[in-house]
Amino acid sequence: QVQLVESGGGLVQAGGSLRLSCAASGSIFTINTMRWYRQAPGKQRELVASITSAGSTGYADSVKGRFTISRDNAKNTVYLQMNSLKPEDTAVHYCNADVRDIYGSGYSSYWGRGTQVTVSS
User: Fold this and answer.
1) pLDDT tens column, 80-93
2) With 80 as the cut, is the pLDDT of residue 104 above it?
3) Are 32 and 107 in contact (CB under 8 A)?
4) Separation CA 28–CA 93 (nearest Å)
5) CB contact set of 69 (below 8 Å; sequence gap of 6+)
């Protein structure tokens, strides 16, 4: 079993910052790409940022220049530093990771339960 647990969400004023964390635990052999998604009420879940095991990153156009994704491979943890937050960033933020466990022969996709980010105007 593999679990992903997010933390760091909360309520912040527009222009403020938050740092999300997502820790993976369980029967992990290796983790490939880790991602942050978000889902606002009434909208589809969208990819916010991704980072490979080698550290290559990608961002949605809506967050480029404001958000930074990073990871600590030794801790199996991915972070999302969110600066200059806007009300439209309000959403539940989910962590996703491609994990190879100690029993399987391939990678499986795992999700956390999400953490709420609310940005007030």
Assistant:
1) 999 999 999 999 99
2) no
3) yes
4) 23
5) 34, 36, 49, 50, 51, 57, 59, 78, 79, 80, 81
